[in-house]
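Memo to structure team: turn this sequence into structure tokens by end of day. - J.P.
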Amino acid sequence: MNIRETTDADLPVLAGIMNAVNPRHPVTAELLGHELRSLREHPLNPYVGVWLAEEGGRAVGTGFLMQPPGMFHPGRYWAEVMVLPEATGRGVGRALADILENCLAGRGAREVQAGAYEDEPRGLAFLTRRGFTETMRYFDNVLDLTAFDPAAWVQEARLPEGLRAVSLAGLIAEQGEDAAWRAYHSAFAEAREDVPRTGAATPLSFETFRERGAGPTFLPWGVLLAVTDAGEVVALSEMYADPTDATRINTGLTGTRRAWRRQGLGLALKLAALGQARERGIRTVWTNNATTNLPMLALNERLGFRPRPAFIEMRRGSVEGV
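Reply from structure team:
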């Protein structure tokens, strides 16, 4: 077995391994390259390391280690090991994990996060043996859009008086590129602070936020915004293209500024987003919610989303008090 650090030339191989291990959320070499470049160019300068395991010249697994910029702490890392199903049981995962462990030790890591799906007992046992314990669960929830009836939601689809729904593309046409993105960022940054997570959210600068528009899955028409007559964005609901399936769409953040909550804005925007998706021939909509986010889980259940096996986030150590 040979384990080495990867280069951009390995992106197609890495994407293939990831898709074989986790077909629930497929990636492409283009998307993977964009995500890695975004991490490496992030102003916080987070550590990013990617390794490839080869047997007889064939790639059979990958190891990934980074400092998550969304809840950045110099002592906190996210670790991931993926091995092709046909190569499990031969020590590939253990060898990759040892590489990551040596790197973590050398960097003085205090907290390491990792995870596996609840229907992956082998992965969960692997993490448990290495000292990880569960911290939070996240459900994939999937809606069959072909069976969704928008006529049943006419009342809920109405925004309160003084608000209107407009896509980011529409807001750009009205306000100009920079002003529209700043209005979008202002609402996103506030709503994001209250999303359940296992660490404090790092403030999101406008410059970093603006770069998401260059992502290969970003859809300006898929960002639905509730806007006041003065042009302020007070709520949002995001959809992103799936990198491999043109009939599937993935949702991002649905959130409302604190002063505007409990008025049905999130539901109205999600309904507008689903309408946009139906018009474009989308058949399935995927979303992901922490099991502690009870209001959003209840809302998605009302809409007809149905849960898939949960992803179990696990942790070893802690940066609390450091």
